[in-house]
Structures are given as C-alpha cells and as structure tokens.
Amino acid sequence: MSTILFIVIVVVVTALVFDFTNGFHDSANAMATSVATGAFTPRRAVLVAAVLNVIGACLSTEVAKTISHGMFDDTLIQAAPAMIFAGLAGAILWNLVTWLFGLPSSSSHALFGGLIGAVVVAAGVEGVHWGTVVSKIILPALIAPCVAGLAAAVATILSYRIARPSDRYSQSIFRNGQRISASMVALAHGTSDGQKTMGVITLALVAGGYQEPGTNPHWWVIGSAGLAIGLGTYSGGWRIMRTMGKGLVHIDSPQGFAAETSSTVAILASSHLGFALSTTHICTGSILGSGIGRGTKVSWSTAGKMGLAWLITLPCAGLVGALTSFIAVRGGVAGTILVIVMLILGALAIIRQANQHRVDFSNVNDSNEVVVLKRNEMGPGAGMESLGGAAAAPAVTAQEHSKESVA
C-alpha cells in the first residue's frame, strides 16, 4: 500500500467518524423542542431524525461542491493530503469537548476551522480561498440566525394571536404540527450537514489523485456519509438536547412549531444556494426568537455561553487543526499515526468524563443543566472560588438554572 493511499483511507475513515459526531452533536437541532414539549418521545425523536438525516443527505450536493472545490486550492492540497486528516482531527476533538459541556456549538464551524488551520500550516494562506470563506461561511453565519430568529418571533406572535394555544384542542394540533416541522428540520439538516463530510472525502480523493478536480461526489461517498450522520443522530446527543430544549428558554408547542418551521425554511434555502452554514446557529436563533415572540423569560447567561462558544469554535478548531497538521504533514506516516493515537486518547478521556454524569433518553428532560464535574472530583485544593463563588453550588455545570417562564 502506498503512503498516499494509506493517508486517503485514514481521511475517509476519520471523515465518517466526524460525520458520526456531527450527527449526535446536532441531533438536538431538529428534536430538542419537540422532546421538551412532549410532541415526540426521546427515542422516537432520534429515530425519526436519523432516518430523515440519511434521506436529506442524498437529496443535494451543492454544499459538498462548496467544500470539495470551493474553499481550497486543489493544486496545493494535492501536495499534502494528510492536512485534511489533521483538520478533521481538530474538528472531532472540538465537537467532543463542546458535547461534554452540553454546548450547542457549530459542528460545521469546527470542521471549517480545523481544515483552514491545517491548510494554512501545510500549504500557506494562499491555499485557502478567503473570498469563498467570507461569502459562503462567515456572512451566512452572521445573517442566518438573525433572519431565522426574526421569522420565529413573528410566527410565534401570530400563533398566539390567531389561535388559542392554551386550549387543549389547539395544543394537540400544535403538537401534531411539531411532529411534522421537527421532521422537516431533520430532513433539512441532512441536506446541509450530511453534505459537508461528502465534500471533505471528495477533497481527499482529489488530493490523492483518485478523483478529478471539480467533479461531484461518488455514490458511495454520498451513501456512507448519509449513513454515518444518521447513526450519529440515532445515538442521541442528549447533553446538548437538554441545553437547547430546557436550558435556553421554556418552550410550549406553538413556539416549538414556529421555531422549527423557521429553521427548516432557512436551512433548505441555504443548502440550495450552497451556503455551508451552521444548522446549530439557525436552530438556536429560532428558539431564541420564539421565546422573545412569546414573551418568555430567556436565560441570557446560557445564551451568552453559547454565543461565546460560537465565536471561539472556528479559531480554536483552527489552532488544533494547525497543530495536528504540523505533526501529520511534517512527520509523514509516523506523524499521522501519532495524531491518530492522540485523537483516540483524547476522545476516550472526554467520553469517560461524560459517563460520570450521564444524560440519556431517560433523564434528558429531568433538568436544565449539564453536570461536568462535581466538587469532590476537583481535588483537595479546590475551594469555593473554583465554583464561581457559589458556596451552595453542588456541582460545576455547563449551564445555569434557567428562571421560571413568564406567561
């Protein structure tokens, strides 16, 4: 087996692992509000989302084209395909860290940041098409959540003025409507995020000389990427689902229906235009907009933490991608193997810590906080200062208690 073929195989496998983490990291985008309002049971929610993610991933390839031959200079990338693997490693680690804390950061921006950092280190700044990055990634990331939030706010206001959401019959209608709208979000998520891994695998095949530049993803790439994100979605991502469904704003069925419908329209429109934006940003913007439209109390401290995670995701993943790129590209096969070992050990450590305070389908709605580290796990030197000054706080958590909703 040649070195190039080995690296391409490593990239394909790692890309599918990233796609799996994308699925469980972003499953909350489609189903958090429906699970919180009781429109779907947790297990049925992730099953429906998983199936529709797979279907959605097979419907379009516009976003995949943006990544495979829009963001980077193919000729420079062909000189060092290991950089693609390095970028994926950075994205996977960032996804796992934010999942541990229950933060709905952008898997898409983690991917883009990891790839950009890796390409800059290995091929220089000229390896990145910065105009495409700004027009297809940065600007949509700023505009789309605001548009989705505004649409959700207006839709929520209209729902409460035209209908009678407090009536039991109306509640039943909205809850059934949520089943449809949440399913559409899952389908739209597949058309957007499912394609990103297709683009990365295609980029690796082009870099290795196994595919012509500018061509569409192969059928097996489309199928495997769709299956990977579907399996990841079915695994749950319960920690982030708790944050989006309970920790940000109290949601009733009319709000959930409005938020999900707004998210669907924004995601599908963006996918059609080839914008590689974050479905997490859109869905979170819609949830906030529905809370504002309803006049429900928003946990702005939680929203602030999420906003901070959004801001630092791309540069932090870029730094990790740059580091892993330096090791993998300069170290050759040995460097690539070293990065694989680092990735596996880091992932196991994060998963082990998450299992200490497990969130799953049975307790996802039991609380609005995600526990990461209890006080007695912080060591004998940890005082009240390490708990943020809260003397009575029983745990260090990723989310604060949200306040009671205001009718």
From TrEMBL:
GO terms for molecular function: phosphate transmembrane transporter activity. It is a multi-pass membrane protein. The keyword Transmembrane helix applies. GO terms for cellular component: membrane. It comes from the Bacteria. It is found in: Membrane. Keywords: Membrane, Phosphate transport, Transmembrane, Transmembrane helix, Transport. InterPro entries: Phos_transporter. GO terms for biological process: phosphate ion transmembrane transport. Belongs to the inorganic phosphate transporter (PiT) (TC 2.A.20) family. PANTHER family: LOW-AFFINITY INORGANIC PHOSPHATE TRANSPORTER-RELATED, PHOSPHATE TRANSPORTER. This is Phosphate transporter.
